[in-house]
Amino acid sequence: MSGDADQTVRPAGDNPSKERRMKPPANPASGILLVDKPQGITSHDVVSRTRKLAGTRKIGHAGTLDPMATGLLVLGMNSSTRLLTFVVGLGKEYFATVRLGQSSDTDDAEGTLGAPVDASAISDDRIAAGIATLTGDIDQVPSSFSAIKVDGKRAYALARAGEEVELKSRSVTISAFELLDARRVDRPEGGAFVDLDVRVACSSGTYIRALARDLGDSLGVGGHLTALRRSKVGPFDVADAATLENLVVNERLLNPAVVASTLFPSHTLDAQDVVDLVHGKRLTVPGLDGVAGPIAGIGPDGRLVGLLEANGPTVKAIVNFPTDEVLTREES
């Protein structure tokens, strides 16, 4: 299955109640990693290999790519796993190939393929109209072979067991569905598939393989995904990602303060503000009222203290970073 919707992985050891009892990691460095996942391995495989390279188990990712897919995985390491919750909901960009003329029970090339249907007569205008229908705010039914839970069980587990899976549609936004190239692929027995190379920019939770399925169904010939590459997650680009083969973890870590300030508005705290936040106090900060969503709280030394929330002039921490990372011994 081409995993193209987000399934957040909880980082190993990311349980605040257990943190005090855990031994410190051999590598305490914290930050965000961008990794270019190769085809043929799972996202969890990437996490496992990165843990070994990094010397810490506390690594998680924000959004799954299944084995067939390649491209950008955003990983968090040590305390920066706390930022992943805010990364998983960011918009995504994908490049994909859709094959018209054949359906799949998983909506991609890894499933059981149906009987081929000649797609050679489908005009460019019909393809363009089908793509237009699937652009904008749409209701999408995820693939039955997905990680969505049904009565506590993963949909793909139920589907593989032969059970009929009916998932509810969900609202997603397809901000771009661009046709880059169309190719006729002749079949030896006669007739042809039509392969479409596309670029899709979409909201979190979108299944690209469901777009392939729905486009093929709307054209009356069926369709499935044969290739998928994730190129962007929010402001992060696969062009800046490392491959597993050349990943030197500490050299590739993105500073959590820089990442948080890229994702959110930021506010520089003075030394006493940092101490007060670490001790659970609320601050009075003029000028932040009306700022929606999280605010990156940056200490005077440039370190990320936490993510803040403003209610009028009152500011409280909604995510704190570890005390030993934000305070010196003298301050604590």
Could you explain how this protein is built, in words?
It is built from ten helices and 16 strands. Strand 15 and strand 16 (314-320) form a beta hairpin. The strands form three sheets. Strands 1, 2, 3, 4, 5, 8, 9, 10 and 11 form a nine-stranded mixed β-sheet that branches. The protein folds into three domains: 16-90 and 234-254, Pseudouridine synthase (2-Layer Sandwich), CATH 3.30.2350; 92-226, Pseudouridine synthase (2-Layer Sandwich); 257-326, Archaeosine Trna-guanine Transglycosylase, Chain: A, domain 4. The protein is elongated. By secondary structure, the chain is of the alpha+beta class. It has helices at residues 16-19, 43-54, 84-87, 124-133, 155-160, 208-218, 249-252, 256-263, 271-278, 323-326; strands at 31-37, 59-61, 70-77, 92-100, 136-140, 149-150, 153-154, 170-186, 192-202, 223-233, 236-237, 266-268, 283-284, 295-298, 304-311, 314-320. The longest helix is centred in the N-terminal third of the chain and has 12 residues, at 43-54.
Query: Regarding CATH, which class of the largest domain?
Result: Alpha Beta
For CATH, the homologous superfamily of the largest domain is named as: Pseudouridine synthase
Residue windows where pLDDT falls under 50 for at least 5 positions: 7-13, 16-21
- Would you tell me the structural class of the helices and strands? alpha+beta
Radius of gyration: 23 Å
Mean pLDDT equals: 87
Along the chain, the helix and strand elements come as: HEHEEHEHEEEHEEHEEHHEHEEEEH
State the CATH topology of the largest domain: Pseudouridine synthase
Q: Give the second-level CATH assignment, the architecture of the largest domain.
A: 2-Layer Sandwich
Major β-sheet annotation: 9 strands, mixed
Shape: elongated
SS element count, helices? 10
The proportion of strand residues reads 25-35%
C-alpha end-to-end distance: 50 Å
Share of helical residues: 10-25%
Instruction: Estimate nothing, just give the exact number of structural domains.
Output: 3
Find the count of extended strands (DSSP E, 2+ residues).
16
